[in-house]
Design goal:
single chain; Rossmann fold; 5-stranded parallel sheet; 11 helices; 5 strands; globular; binds zinc ion
Length: 283
Amino acid sequence: MNTRATPSGITVVCLIGTSRCGSTVLQAALAQFRDVAALGEIKRLRQLADAHAVCGCGEPIERCPIWRDEVAGFLPQHGSRFRMAVNALAAAVGAPLLGTEARAAQSLGRTLKDIARKIPSRVFVDSSKDPDQLLLYMTLPDVVVIPVHVVRDPRGVVQSAGRRTGIAPGAMAKHWRRLNGATLALRRIAPRLPWHAITYEDFYRDPAGACRAILRDAGHDGAMREQTAAQHTLGGSPGFSFAGTDSIHVEDAWRQTMPPDMQAAILRESGWPARHFGYRLQG
Ligand SMILES: [Zn+2]
């Protein structure tokens, strides 16, 4: 189990999940471990740089010493459900991806190699959160990828996303079903990858233990950093700050405040993936 990481290769923990699923906190918790670097939403590098967004180090991305030289050559993928389905089947059998995604994968591979030269880490965390980002990693021969499917109760996601962006409950629940359904399907067609599925609720019970379980597959010994280090993290939740795994609190106000009929409607819209993870009206 712990020999997947090759000494010369790069190991990437690839987080997949909806918005408000806890991936930002999970990524920050992982970066508390030695030799783990949180790179954030790499998929959005160009978009974030164009918007003059700030890197986790505090510099605007276009001035960050880690990212500034990567922006111009970085190719985003297009992403549509049809293209993703075709690419998923291709990646599963080792066939080439469609043209745009194949070029995006090459550019991602180049970027990672550059980053690995600049940040001496053994494990990198990508919190792009989209299943199609995993497809790119699956085709990179020098990269060991550890997919982590992060799942949160759709009622919690709907409430949290609604408060933050105003998105309607039905639209968010449908997105929840599609993204988690696609990820479960991907897991089925790529069963040889060292998949982890972690629920928000379990993660909050034992954050450090959850991180160690993931890092074990990267051959990591589970040692934490002695002091926190600046991370060159892209994107993430606005205003997010992290004071360590001891200070993590689960946010589940929906259990008290959400009317039962609304809970039932969200669970219905969230469909079979919600049932797969055991999210039910009672409990
Ligand atoms: Zn930076």
